[in-house]
Amino acid sequence: MTVIPFEKSNKTKSVLHLSFTKKTPVSRSESKPEPAHAVRAAAIVYCEGNFGQTDGKTANGLVRHSEKFEILSIIDSTQSGRDAGELLDGKRIEIPVLSNLEEALAGASRKPNYFIFGVAPATGMLSPTERSVVLKALEYGMHVVNGLHEFLSDDPVFVAAATKHNAKIIDVRKPRSKKDLRLFSDTVRRVECPRIAVLGTDCAIGKRTTASILTRELVKRGIRAVMVSTGQTGLMQGGRYGVVLDAVPSQFCCGELEATIWEAFEAEKPDVIIIEGQGALSHPAFCTSAFILRGSAPDGVILQHAPKRKHRCDFEGMAMPEPRSEIDLIEAFADTKVIGVTINHENMADAEINAAICSYESALGIPVTDALARPEELLVNMVFSSFPELEAKQDACVG
Distance between CA atoms of 221 and 226, rounded to whole angstroms? Predict the structure, then answer.
């Protein structure tokens, strides 16, 4: 059995949404070019009972965008027979939702090498049923990618199964050794490009999706943009720079994020760095937003909000805040400005999205858009309005 750091587990080509770099350095051991079909590893994503829901955000994100894996199918018996893209966004993408692992293997267009656990429950732990499914995947010789707080590489049962079937266990959330963790040093102040954090009014509200779309669109316009992931899904999608903050001891969270941002800045010399948010600063169950604001010292913040969400995820007695209160809290907590609001349109008709955009723009006096339901240009213009030097770089590229 092999347990390896996730970022070293699979050789891939450059990650457009995370870096403007056109080529990825090739190690000396790679003497032969990989065939075209091997650019992305084939994977099945397990998301039983949660695909398209908030706790299925890892599977949802991989279906919408993945440059590390080719997603062959989703396992969720409650949605079996549907197309994953149609279910999420109303657009068919030929990724089927199937009932179980055996059905997914039988219907695969090519051999799936990876089994990705795509559920992100609040507990961060496997249920007894989920344990049996993951063990079955190992018995089929599939490498298991696990984004939970429960590290399977520390479990003797999973280790034995992986060893027996020559499979790998990849615990994405597992932090580096404590002796290697880094403390905050204020190095982030030496980063010579704008840093924009995408925060939110709740967890599982679309911060990563908005950050990823924004970064890709900036790259398309000739802006040297890099995204720094702060959760497991971004790394699974192919993130070159990131740290899973909620698995790092709190003393080191700011320093680990700062060091990762510095690594991205030194390696890529970007025009802008986009930082994925976690949780919400006002949410008592999460502290990661505070660490992100301190560790990245952002020059600007984009706030993601779901107008139709009545209460916080998993906390029915905790009402959702309005954007105004979250903006005031962010700007009081950190030396930064909220430059725009992005809408999560869950449970909203198109007319309701328009009404929300107009209402928030009028009340807040800043740009508002929906990264998924409105043209990407509006999201880019939101950034250009606060950072005109980036728009100038785009004009120079066009010229």
Answer: 13
Q: Interior CA angle at 169 toward 168 and 175, to 5°?
A: 130
* Residue-wise pLDDT tens digits, 12-48: 332 233 333 333 332 323 333 334 344 789 999 999 9
- The neighbour count for residue 383, using CB atoms within 10 Å, is 25
**Cα distance between residue 79 and residue 101, in whole Å:** 14
Task: Give the separation between CA 143 and CA 170, rounded to whole angstroms.
Answer: 8
Strands 300-305 vs 338-343: parallel, antiparallel or unpaired? parallel
Beta carbons within 8 Å of 221's beta carbon, 6+ residues apart = 380, 394, 397
* Of 265, 298, 318, the residue nearest 19 (C-alpha): 265
Give CA–CA dist 142/87, Å, rounded. Answer: 26
For residue 96, what are the β-bridge partners?
83
How many angstroms separate the CA atoms of 394 and 399, rounded?
9
**Whole-angstrom distance, CA of residue 326 vs CA of residue 312:** 14
Res 123: pLDDT = 76
pLDDT value at 6 more than 70 = no
Per the CB < 8 A criterion, the answer to whether 306 and 280 are in contact is no
Residue 265's closest CA among 220, 302, 296, 234? Answer: 296
